Amino acid sequence: MVEHAQAPLGRLPPSVAPCGHRGCTSVFGERWGTAANLVTAARTVGTVALWGVAVTTGDDGWLLAALLCYWLGDIADGLLARLTHRETRTGAVLDVLADRLSVCLVVVSYVTTHPPATLPAAVFLLQFVVLDAYLTLAFTRWSLLSPNYFHLVDAPIYRLNWSPPAKVTNTVAVAVVVVITGWMAVATVLAATVLAVKTYSTVRLTRLPVPQIRSGCAVLDVHGRPEPSLG
């Protein structure tokens, strides 16, 4: 079976049946105008606006506000999508792109006025903009709505990258160490550790079999047979 990405919610083509796994694409409607996507757009515009004020005034407080706008908005759009059952692959991809834009603006601007942060920032951006983006967008190879459900494909990669502890470590820890403590050596070691985790995850990802045709069920994509839903 091929994936029917445009099927409206609650109405399936006769050949496709819901698999029962939350996060699979067997029952979903692809759309742009969801509340979560609007939040993604708003938090990105807000981050860019606050960054603009920071660059204009040279005040690190505005740069911190831009970073907080990105962090809080990133939490809010994903949570809203899940609570309203309006998750879309389009929204997941837009979220990835908005994250990279927001983080690059803030980090590069911070390094410009704080040269000692150059090394940890460079290591962080290498993993976040290159490896993490590659890993995060890999969900599109399977019948998944977003990387938040990658455990249906590979549990270790999910735990290392998109479980709640992993998300905090991957995106927040280095910035907190740099801004709060100023310990650049510690921040560099932490960023290098995250880079190593991303490298391992990338190598593991390249070894996973990829279905030639998405079935609408990620578990079926992986195992070639349906397995019972865990609820």
List the helices and strands and how they pair.
Elements: H1 35-57, H2 60-83, H3 89-113, H4 118-137, H5 155-161, H6 164-171, H7 173-181, H8 184-206, H9 218-223
Helix pairs in contact: 1-2, 1-3, 2-3, 3-4, 4-8, 5-8, 7-8
Explain the overall architecture.
By secondary structure, this protein is mostly helical. It folds into two domains: about 90 residues; about 110 residues. It is built from nine helices and no strands. α1 runs parallel beside α3 and α7 packs antiparallel against α8. The N terminus is likely disordered.
Helix content: 55-70%
The whole-angstrom Rg is 19 Å
Instruction: Give the biggest sheet.
Output: none
Please identify the structural class as seen in this structure: mainly alpha
Spatial separation of the terminal alpha carbons = 23 Å
Shape: globular
From N to C, what is the helix and strand string?
HHHHHHHHH
Q: What is the count of DSSP helices, taking H or I runs of 4+ residues? A: 9
Mean pLDDT: 86
Number of domains: 2
